[in-house]
Amino acid sequence: MQLLIIAFIEETIFRGILLRMLLTKGVATAVWVSSILFGVTHALQLLGGQSLEDTIIQIIYALLVGSCSIIAYLRWSIHYCNNSFPWV
């Protein structure tokens, strides 16, 4: 249950609210800033007693996965809109 709640919150914040706010600054900026913030939030694992090395690896992994997720989200949404609304 915790995994579902955390995933829902992350998607809502990082690929919902934050991404939409940052898209006004450009796609590249939105992808990088959102991904960096997503990665940095994983630094909270240090407070739970995780080692520094494991936390750094998790931050890098989250940054890369966050970037890929946002790019996939943007491409899918654009592709979907182009196919659904050809007059746009």
Automatic annotation (TrEMBL):
Keywords: Hydrolase, Membrane, Metalloprotease, Protease, Transmembrane, Transmembrane helix. The chain crosses the membrane at residues 21-44, 56-74. The keyword Protease applies. InterPro entries: Rce1/LyrA-like_dom. It comes from the Bacteria. Residues 3-76 form the CAAX prenyl protease 2/Lysostaphin resistance protein A-like domain. It holds the Pfam family Rce1-like. GO terms for biological process: CAAX-box protein maturation. GO terms for molecular function: endopeptidase activity; metallopeptidase activity. This is CPBP family intramembrane metalloprotease. It comes from Lysinibacillus irui.
